[in-house]
Fold Enolase.
Amino acid sequence: MKITAVEAVPFAIPYTKPLAFASGEVRTADHVLVRIHTDDGLTGTAEAPPRPYTYGETQESIVAVIGKVFAPQLLGLTALDREAVHAVLERTVGNPTAKAALDMALWDILGQAAGMPVSGLLGGYTDRMRVGHMVGFAPAAEMVAEAERIRDTYGITTFKVKVGRVPYAQDVAACRALREALGPGVELYIDGNRGWTASDAARVLAETADLGLLFAEELCPADDVLGRRRLVAGSPLPFIADESATRPAEVTRELLGGSATAISIKTARTGFTGSQRVLHLCEGLGTEVVMGNQIDGQIGTLCSVAFGAAHRSSSRYAGELSNFLDMADDLLAEPLTIESGTLHVREGAGLGIDIDPGKLARYRQDR
Ligand code: MUC
Ligand code: MG
């Protein structure tokens, strides 16, 4: 299982419906396909989604850091040397999705070598997750129409509503319209991507108190340290840290400092190894987790569900596993399907990522 080559292939697939949120917008999935090859003929696969507004990475930076920095350092190590691989990767700061994709590709190799599914190797708690769908910025009536379409087509009954617009009244109105249209049986929570001040966020929590929201996520920046603590202390809802707590040390800091009371785990930024560290830390601290979405394509979504389903605490709530529905196409030979609001882990050895060569040839950006 010695690593002989590492590929970072940029590809671009348009969205049929762009997703807009307080910190940015996606119109094209300009991701990077990461493949690690070994001397015994195995190939591990994952994808890295650049999110410059969250981590500073771009498609070009991911290709460059993998090709120029990480690949030369990994050649000769084996897929079993995961701690050594991480020690090497951590010599370079930042670049979370590039590192995460490498980690998940190595787990894919391990699963293939063992003839076992990665989800089973990680924990094997269940083989599926309930799916939550993210509703991006739009006029309230369009947000309602989208949620109804997703509910009616895929059986999804959990929605994360993107908020954080200024003035905030439009988001309060959208949440109210969603609750009225979807009824009390549907789970709704809000994610502000740091768009509001702590005091506006507190006003929103007061004005939506009757809507039965499940969580509030990143309503204001964690860097507004005291305001955020005051907001979280007074919040009637679990307050999820997403982009403010991406590494175990940040998770510890935000939770112990009172700036969050729940954590979003995204395999796209912490891979499987780092996500397990975050998960176990949260379990030790008695903190709930939600499987978040880095606006993943189908490859990233397969990774997320493999991890989420593997553990009891990461499969408790609906995972954010449906952003790929807004993409015009994908690279998988066999597309993912969401039925009755549920996504299954792919069976078979490894992660079950089978890339369609024709699609890769069509969408890759480097030829
Ligand atoms: C989310 O949960 O915030 C939007 C920006 C990002 O980094 O992730 C997405 C979804
Ligand atoms: Mg978020």
The chain has two domains: 3-115, 120-344. The chain has a mean pLDDT of 98. Residues 191, 193, 217-218, 242, 264, 292 surround magnesium ion (ligand 2) (CB under 6 Å).
